[in-house]
Amino acid sequence: MDLLPSAARPAVRPVELDADGIPLSGLLAEAAGGDVPRALLVALHGGGMSAGYFDGRAIPGQSLLSLAAGAGATVLALDRPGYGASAPYLPEGLDLAGQTRLLYAALSGFARGRDLGAGLFLVAHSSGGRLALSAAAEPRAELPLLGVDVSGLGRHFAVDRHELPASDGRGAWRRHWGALRFYPPGAFRLGQELVRPTPEREARDVLEWPRAYPGIAARVRVPVRFTFAEQEQWWRHDEAALGELLEPLAAPRVEVARQSDAGHNISLGWAARTYHLRVLAFLEECLLARETAAPGRHR
Questions:
Q1: Strands 74-78 and 40-44
Q2: Distance between CA atoms of 185 and 216, rounded to whole angstroms?
Q3: pLDDT tens, position by position, 210-245
Q4: Per-residue pLDDT tens over the stretch 199-211
Q5: pLDDT > 70? residue 157
Q6: Of 39, 77, 28, which Cα lies nearest the Cα of 223?
Q7: Torsion sign (Cα): 34, 35, 40, 42
Q8: Structural domains in the chain?
């Protein structure tokens, strides 16, 4: 059952943002009626995917864009640098620092003259989570950051380095998707339309994440939530690994969630709606924390 009747669902439309002369394509959904949004939710896809990952259409209610816009947020899912419209300009992609710079350039332009509500909230999957955490470690005054919600990303690989997917994704299907029962009819056909080559520079940069993570995490000072699917197969999420994931974070609040009945690609499966509702609940908690911490509030 969808959150809103079909006629009331917010429209999702393609957009293109300027990032210092490089176009970043994506999808945008806004709250109906021109209401001031509760926040700007920016969604960042994983390696070898595209912005449509967050707009799954295999079953009603699967799309994060429609769901979050229906709950009063402006939702922007971007093709990360090296994907979509930027691919011809960045044929080898960018390292994490370069992606972070272009992300902020695009968002600063998007925000100019636009009401963002309470601020920016980052939702990210897999390698998009590296970008979200990197952006959180380098906040911008013009884009107040509320929190970060990441799925499918840890600190330590659950596979040997030589088993990580190649730039064309060969040999990675089962680890990306998990059990077939986790996905509705049509999910794999529609999912194939979302797949893109992983830029070579990004594929190499992923290997540095275990080393780079502690320094990035130590500069993240907003609430963070990590979600691991029942069949997450790329990243370790045992108790020891989780301890090492959380220990370097300077965040005022950190949560770890488990998503049952899901593989790595949570947002394309039966569990997508459940996960996305939990994302929105975390956003609401971040908004509540901001509101109650505002000057003048009675303690």
A1: parallel
A2: 39
A3: 999 999 999 999 999 999 999 999 999 999 999 999
A4: 999 999 999 999 9
A5: yes
A6: 39
A7: negative
A8: 6-290 (3.40.50.1820)
Three-class SS of the chain: CCCCCHHHCCCEEEEEEEECCEEEEEEEECCHHHCCCCCEEEEECCCCCCHHHHHCCCCCCCCHHHHHHHCCCEEEEECCCCCHHHCCCCCCCCCHHHHHHHHHHHHHHHHCCCCCCCCEEEEEECHHHHHHHHHHCCCECCECEEEEEEECCCCCECCCHHHCCCCCCCCCHHHHHCCHHHCCCCHHHHHHCCCCCCCHHHHHHHCCHHHHHHHHHCCCCCCEEEEEEEECCCECCCHHHHHHHHCCCCCCCEEEEEEEEEECCHHHCCCHHHHHHHHHHHHHHHHHHHHHCCCCCCC
Give the separation between CA 241 and CA 65, rounded to whole angstroms.
Answer: 31
Q: How confident is the model at residue 5 (pLDDT cuts 50, 70, 90)?
A: very low
pTM of the model: 0.93
Length of the chain: 299
pLDDT at site 174: 76
**Angstrom distance (rounded) from CA 210 to CA 283:** 27
